[in-house]
Each structure stands twice: as C-alpha cells, then as structure tokens.
C-alpha cells in the first residue's frame, strides 16, 4: 500500500457517513503532515508577494496596487506548477478518491484565500453556483489551513444538511445570504457549525453545502488552501487546463 492510499484510510466509516449526512466534515486532528502544509504555505506566500503583478482574473481585486482584505489567488497550480503534484495535493487526492469511491480523482480547481486582519465575513454560499461548467455529480472540496487559526481569525462555518435541499440547488443557489442569518433554505432549528483549525487539520464539504466565514478579528492573516476533486473526464480536462494557462503565461 503506498503512502497516499494509507492516508485515504485515515477517515473512518463513521466520519464518511457523517460527511454524507451533514454535507461536510471537520477533521480537527493533525492528519495532514505538517511539512507538506508548510511547503505549500511557503510557495503560496511567494505568490501573494507577487499579488500586484498576477493576472487579475486569477487574483481578483478592484486595484492592481493593493490586495483586497480577503485576497484570493485562483489556479495556484498554474501559477506555480511545482504545486500541481506536491505531496499535500497528492495526499488530498488519495483521500478524495477514497471518499468518492473512485480509482482516480482530478483536482478540478485550486485556490488560496488569505483573510487579512480586520477582513469581514464571507457570506453564506454554495460552491456549485460559482462553477463555470456546472458542478460534477460527485465532488469533494477541501479547505485546508496553511497556518494556525485563532478562534477569532475567520472560522469557516457550515450549515448541516444544507446539501440536501434539492430545490435550493436550482432555485436559490445563485443567491447569497448575509452571514448573520442562516441561509434561506436552511432547515429550522439548524445551527451553523465551525471550529478554528490548525496546521494538519482540514475540512471537506460538497458543492451544495452552504458555508461562509466570520470576520478576522485576530492580528494575523488567516491563510487557507482550497482543493476541489472529482472523478470523470470533464474534471480531467479542468485539471489539464491550468498547464495550458501556465504555458500561455510563461510565453514572452
Ligand atoms: O476561506 C474562506 O473564508 C471562505 C472561502 C470559501 O468559502 C470559498 O472560497 O468558497
């Protein structure tokens, strides 16, 4: 059994069924190797150093001079191809394949979200809405802290069972809701769940799970990595896409 497969079995059957029931799973244990996470943090930090010069479609913001309080960099693996097959990505890919019950999982999207000190919340939303080509039927989205997050640094929160509202998948999906109130399609009596995570921890959710994050009231930047995996040919194309982008970007 190779190391990736070994890691896949880190999640217990109980955790997997919790993921299916709630639409998310928070793993607040040191499962991901610290050195793998630190390696990615260092390389992603270098990309943020270059934020003003990154293509605005990959690093969205109103101005080229200053990054916004919640600064996203999309397609890290295109901007820094070393990240495309780094050990952390492969560890998560192995887990994703096991979770999806697939022999191969493709990383169809990757990004970083740096929430600077003083940044506001990220409103409730469901990832499938942002998906240009529509969300695949099976997909697992990892949210991985790249540094230790204090309790007031902008914890990611989930609405349990929100992935089950099939109507909301179509009718209410494109709407965003203010974080103060629960999403319009949340079942009454449901409480949002979130736990501050540290290096080695992670959470997973489905494309239909409502989630958002609270403001960063700590003095530190809250750094997170997002990896979305799914099986199937269309996802393979999405994974190969970034190498094309990277090729185009490196052309003189
Ligand atoms: O990192 C965060 O605060 C939220 C990110 C998020 O929910 C997303 O990118 O879909």
Instruction: Determine the strand fraction and express it as a percent band.
Output: 15-25%
Q: What is the strand tally?
A: 9
* C-alpha geometry: globular
How would you characterize the largest beta sheet?
6 strands, antiparallel
Task: Give the full name of the CATH homologous superfamily.
Answer: q2cbj1_9rhob like domain
**Radius of gyration based on Cα positions:** 17 Å
User: Can you tell me the CATH class?
Assistant: Mainly Beta
Write a brief caption for the model:
With 252 residues, the protein is an alpha+beta fold.
Describe the structure.
- The protein has 252 residues and is of the alpha+beta class.
- It has a single domain (3-224, 231-250), classed as Sandwich (Jelly Rolls), CATH 2.60.120.
- It has 7 helices and 9 strands, in the order H-H-E-H-E-H-H-E-E-E-E-H-E-E-E-H.
- The strands form 2 sheets. Strands 1-7-5-9-3-2 form a 6-stranded antiparallel beta sheet.
- The chain is globular, with a radius of gyration of 17 Å.
- The structure holds 2-oxoglutaric acid (AKG).
- Residues 113, 115, 122, 127, 154, 156, 211, 213, 224, 226 line the site of 2-oxoglutaric acid (AKG).
Summary tags:
29% helix; 3-stranded antiparallel beta sheet; binds 2-oxoglutaric acid; 252 residues; disordered N terminus; alpha+beta
Fold blueprint:
Blueprint: H1 3-8, H2 13-22, E1 24-27, H3 34-49, E2 70-74, H4 76-79, H5 87-100, E3 106-115, E4 122-125, E5 140-145, E6 156-158, H6 166-170, E7 202-205, E8 211-213, E9 222-230, H7 233-250
Antiparallel strand pairs: 1-7, 2-3, 3-9, 4-8, 5-7, 5-9, 6-8
Residues 113, 115, 122, 127, 154, 156, 211, 213, 224, 226 line the site of 2-oxoglutaric acid.
């Amino acid at each position: 059994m190779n190391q990736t497969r070994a890691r896949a079995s880190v999640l217990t059957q109980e955790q997997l069924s919790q993921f299916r029931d709630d639409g998310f799973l928070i793993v607040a244990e040191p499962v991901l190797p610290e050195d793998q996470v630190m390696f990615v943090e260092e390389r992603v930090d270098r990309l943020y150093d270059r934020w003003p010069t990154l293509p605005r479609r990959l690093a969205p913001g109103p101005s080229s001079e200053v990054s916004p309080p919640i600064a996203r960099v999309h397609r890290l693996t295109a901007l820094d191809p070393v990240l495309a097959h780094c050990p952390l990505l492969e560890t998560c890919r192995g887990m994703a394949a096991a979770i999806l019950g697939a022999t191969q999982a493709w990383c169809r999207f990757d990004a970083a979200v740096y929430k600077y000190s003083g940044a506001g919340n990220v409103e409730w939303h469901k990832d499938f809405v942002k998906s240009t080509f529509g969300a695949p039927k099976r997909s697992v989205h990892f949210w991985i802290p790249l540094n230790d997050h204090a309790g007031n640094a902008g914890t990611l929160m989930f609405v349990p069972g929100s992935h089950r509202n099939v109507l909301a998948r179509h009718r209410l999906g494109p709407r965003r809701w203010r974080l103060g109130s629960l999403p319009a399609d949340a079942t009454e009596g449901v409480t949002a769940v979130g736990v501050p995570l540290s290096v080695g921890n992670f959470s997973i959710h489905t494309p239909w799970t409502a989630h958002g994050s609270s403001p960063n009231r700590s003095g530190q930047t809250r750094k997170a990595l997002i990896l979305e995996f799914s099986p199937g040919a269309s996802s393979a194309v999405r994974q190969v896409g970034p190498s094309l982008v990277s090729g185009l970007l490196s052309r003189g």
